[in-house]
Amino acid sequence: MTDHRVTVVVITHNRRPELLRTLHALSDLPERPRVVVTDNASSDGTAEAVTRLFPEMTLLTPGRNLGAVGRNLAVAEVRSPYVAFCDDDTWWEPLSLRKAADILDTRPRLAAVTARIVVEPSGEEDPVVAELRDSPLAGPDWLPGPALGSFLAAATVMRTDAFRSVGGFHPGLWLGGEEELLATDLLQRGWWLSYVPDLLIHHAASEARDSTERRVLGLRNTLWFTWLRRPFVPAVRRTVHLLCTVPRDRASLRAFGRAVAGLPWVLRRRRPVSPPVEARLRTLERARRAYTARRYVG
Questions:
Q1: pTM
Q2: CA 296, CA 218: separation in Å to the nearest integer?
Q3: What is the 3-state secondary structure (H, E, C) of the chain?
Q4: Which of 170, 219, 253, 258 is most exposed by smallest CB count within 10 Å?
Q5: How many CA atoms does the CB half-sphere of 293 hold within 13 Å?
Q6: Which residues of 41-72 are buried (b: 16+ CB within 10 A; e: fewer)?
Q7: Contact 196, 113 (CB under 8 A)
Q8: Across-strand partners of 58?
Q9: From first to last of its 298 residues, what are the pLDDT tens digits of the chain?
């Protein structure tokens, strides 16, 4: 059952127990994928444990916390046509990687497939699945599922060449909603993204997280993405909507403050998308207002 078409990339920071559980699950997959781990400067013995318990896996230790860019470092080591991303608290269902590779093999303009996510230990669907399943975007008939405007790095298999063609994850965003910019750049180049419910990934959310700081980063990055890629009028409209709807608290204030501080580099690198891609972004923006899975709360 060994399948060399997919390499799994994992980034981690100070979550040794969660990471080791994920690596055990990945090592048991019938596809026997190569696994590349980027340890973002953990101080809890993560690197030593991975080296001791999983010597067959590739471990990268950049010496500092690169955030999402740690995935770029790992993808530089990938030689397979497809790369499967998962976080240190998610792991792939057996045979899902093989199914994803089969789908990508026959659809050369499909950049990525995102899996159905179930929450452990309950086995219930993650609330974000409804947003993926009910995507309002239209796509060509050959797509294996609903067309998407973005993806979840914790649950996606991507064409390696497509990832590299847009430069991977943007270093300016670091972490938090970093997928949106990469996905939009893929759409701008004519790639397609799709949700495939036959693919499955498990998520046991780590308790080692600062939900407030994640909200700050997510809101900041949403604002930066808006001004990096949206035309002027939609960017103003989106910014005003966020100002009016996010919680009025210190976290939101910090997020807007950080976003304003970064405006000089954002405006220097601003490249608004084409009208067809902007139309898709508007459609997604309207639909997302009805969902609660990714609100800026916490």
A1: 0.95
A2: 8
A3: CCCCCEEEEEEECCCHHHHHHHHHHHHCCCCCCEEEEEECCCCCCHHHHHHHHCCCCEEECCCCCCCCHHHHHHHCCCCCCEEEEEECCEEECCCHHHHHHHHHHCCCCEEEEEEEEEECCCCEECCHHHHHHCCCCCCCCCCCCCECCCCCHHHEEEEHHHHHHCCCCCCCCCCCCCHHHHHHHHHHCCCEEEEEEEEEEEECCCCCCCHHHHHHHHHHHHHHHHHHHCCHHHHHHHHHHHHHHCCCCHHHHHHHHHHHHCHHHHHHCCCCCCHHHHHHHHHHHHHHCCCCCCCCCC
A4: 253
A5: 13
A6: bbebebbebbeeebeebbbbbeeebbbbbbbb
A7: yes
A8: 36
A9: 789 999 999 999 999 999 999 999 999 999 999 999 999 999 999 999 999 999 999 999 999 999 999 999 999 999 999 999 999 999 999 999 999 999 999 999 999 999 999 999 999 999 999 999 999 999 999 999 999 999 999 999 999 999 999 999 999 999 999 999 999 999 999 999 999 999 999 999 988 778 899 999 999 999 999 999 999 999 999 999 999 999 999 999 999 999 999 999 999 999 999 999 999 999 999 998 877 655 544 3
Residue with tokens 């950080």: 258
- How is residue 243 written in tokens? 């100002």
